[in-house]
Amino acid sequence: MTPAHFTFSSMFMLGLAGLAFHRTHLLSALLCLEGMMLSLFIALSLWTLQLNSTSFSASPVLLLAFSACEASAGLALLVASARTHGTDRLQSLNLLQC
């Protein structure tokens, strides 16, 4: 495994571990998701550069567009939950009361 592959895989795993174990605030969960998407974007960009093919050149841009949509939906949910519940703590959100 090259150092670049190790860096991006460890970056993705750290984001996943942060998402799994540090679930107190919705904002921290969204930041972990963005870190995971950033590592996937950089890894996919380097992978297309290593292949030297033009057929995969649109893949990183498509992933970046989906990441932007995910971020905007997450921030909209953060604002909505902060307005209705008064906090962004995940323990205050109960799906049975919706």
UniProtKB/TrEMBL annotation:
The keyword S-adenosyl-L-methionine does not apply. Belongs to the complex I subunit 4L family. GO terms for biological process: ATP synthesis coupled electron transport. It comes from Thorichthys aureus. InterPro entries: NADH_UbQ_OxRdtase_chain4L/K, NUOK/Mnh_C1-like. It is a multi-pass membrane protein. Its main location: mitochondrion. Gene3D superfamilies: 1.10.287.3510. It is found in: Mitochondrion inner membrane; Mitochondrion membrane. Keywords: Electron transport, Membrane, Mitochondrion, Mitochondrion inner membrane, NAD, Respiratory chain, Translocase, Transmembrane, Transmembrane helix, Transport, Ubiquinone. It is an enzyme of class 7 (translocase). Core subunit of the mitochondrial membrane respiratory chain NADH dehydrogenase (Complex I) which catalyzes electron transfer from NADH through the respiratory chain, using ubiquinone as an electron acceptor. Part of the enzyme membrane arm which is embedded in the lipid bilayer and involved in proton translocation. The keyword Transmembrane helix applies. This is NADH-ubiquinone oxidoreductase chain 4L. The chain crosses the membrane at residues 6-22, 29-49, 61-80. It comes from the Eukaryota. Its EC number is 7.1.1.2. One of its GO terms (cellular component) is NADH dehydrogenase complex.
